[in-house]
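Need 3-oxoacyl-[acyl-carrier-protein] synthase-3's 3D structure for a figure. Predict it.
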Amino acid sequence: MYIHQVAAYLPAQIVTNEHFTRLNGLSHKWIMERTGIHERRKAGPGENTNTMALEATRRALAQAPLFAKESIDLIVGATYTPHDTIYTVAHAVQRDLDVADIPVVSVSSACSSLLNAIEIVEGYFAMGKASRALVVVSEHNTAYYNEDDTVAGHLWGDGAAALLISKERLAPTDLRMVDLITAGAASVGKADTAVTLKPVERGIIMPHGKDVFIHACQYMARVTRDILDRNQLAVNDLNWLIPHQANLRITRNVLENLGLPDERAVSNIEYLGNTGCAGAAIALADHRPQIKPGERIIITVFGGGYSYGAMLLKA
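Structure prediction for 3-oxoacyl-[acyl-carrier-protein] synthase-3:
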């Protein structure tokens, strides 16, 4: 199957590290050294997970004249920061598009949900139940976080992305989805408590950041090697790596583990913070113009809970 178009939406408001210096004394240097984050985006009044998803979807469709909204026969939404857990982000997109009587699915697997959503599309395509799908990933982290939290309050940013996926190639610029691996790792480490979001108790918290760091580095590197091996490819055959945008130190650790130079990694965490399951898709949207025909791209993700995955694309 093929990614025909990908587009992102980012809120206009920028929150710099100086905000957290004023709030709780965390210096710009301290945050930057530990996370690589300089600034992040924050949804404005009237914006939420659903509105950001709608704007990303509109942008994707506006850039894809060959992909009419009437041809969409599957919508998969992904988020762990829902605006509404009943009228989900996927339903909001369906209503906005006014495309009736098609499968509409929402999925949550923490920050790895992008690949789980695409895998759902793969299944529908394989069963012959759909041929043109919309995947939308959106996170409103600042609706849930506690910015006074000096452990994790400064990590989070908001944003959304939409991907138009077809069973057949529509244009020479389409990215072919060569292979996809996802898995849960809830049985390892402190997966059950390392990152939690309990809406009633308010706040995304990360009491075991070291455990997250260790397992994110291990699993993203391992699953990247796995998908390369499964497709008889060497690390040097990989042109671009788009890791989950959680921490710049994690990205650098994964690159070192794989033996990839820094310039092959696509990163946006410096300016967007951790945008959850939307982060890698936003990075793909930003980097898409730089991808040349024949190049190979791997998106590798890791989420709290734990969950992980990798997707191999070829331009």
